[in-house]
Write a structure and sequence with these properties.
238 residues; mainly alpha; 8 helices
Length: 238
């Protein structure tokens, strides 16, 4: 049965292909707009600091992080981490990425519900995920070998299904959070005249490409859940 589970990994291929395409699109759009400097001349860090201060978020610190496109916002630590390429550059891509992270800070300020829901789900998902495969193995031992079709085994397998479902839920909730952060970023850049129309189109292309990676993650999570249900519950009925 376990070999069948890995063979059924073929069901993930569409999701994996989509994820590769999405990542390729992120890289190509970021590289394209990284070579075009904004007319305002401000770096990603300067724009982020300006908008944070104007919105009363002076308590949020901007730090540097290594790598490429490793930018993130940590609400607990009250920091925005910008990769060096984003923080130091005045390119359209860099300003768009930096403002996306500011968009997350604005979500917290405005009590945006989906981001609160995602934060509530994260520790639950992490805990259940850490227990997932031990539970699957125990469930299979009882349900298929030691005590076929036992209630205990089925309970364990259903817990595993819930775990996979939480991963789907987490990725589903993440989508509006990420798209909304980008929408806020573009709106602020436009209302503050930081980027002109053509430049905004470039920033939008970069951010929309990045959002596709979250769509890909959701697709893979759904296919993974489907694979588990098809393999383990079909074997139970045999």
């Amino acid at each position: 049965m376990f070999w069948e589970y890995y063979v059924m990994g073929i069901i993930l291929i569409p999701g994996i292909i989509f994820a590769l395409i999405a990542q390729s699109k992120v890289n190509s759009s970021f590289n394209k707009w990284s070579t075009i400097q904004s007319a305002c001349g401000l770096t990603g860090e300067q724009v982020a600091r300006k908008i944070l201060d104007e919105n009363g978020l002076t308590n949020i610190t901007i730090i540097r992080t290594n790598g490429t496109l490793t930018d993130y916002y940590d609400n607990k630590k009250q920091i925005i981490a910008l990769s060096n390429g984003v923080a130091n550059s005045s390119s359209i891509a860099s300003i768009g990425v930096a403002m996306h992270e500011v968009g997350h800070a604005l979500q917290y300020k405005n009590n945006y519900f989906p981001i609160k829901l995602r934060n509530f789900i994260i520790p639950i998902t992490n805990f259940v995920s850490s227990m997932l495969w031990p539970l699957v193995i125990i469930g299979c031992l009882f349900n298929f070998w030691l005590i076929p079709n036992s209630i205990f085994g089925m309970v364990i397998l259903w817990i595993a299904v819930i775990s996979f479902s939480l991963a789907v839920l987490f990725n589903l909730v993440t989508l509006p959070v990420e798209y909304n952060a980008s929408k806020r970023a573009l709106s602020v850049l436009q209302s503050n005249n930081i980027l002109h129309d053509e430049e905004l189109a470039g920033a939008k292309e970069v951010l929309n490409s990045a959002a596709l990676t979250y769509v890909a993650a959701l697709l893979v999570a759904i296919l993974n859940l489907l694979r588990f249900v098809l393999v383990f519950f079909r074997n139970r009925d045999d």
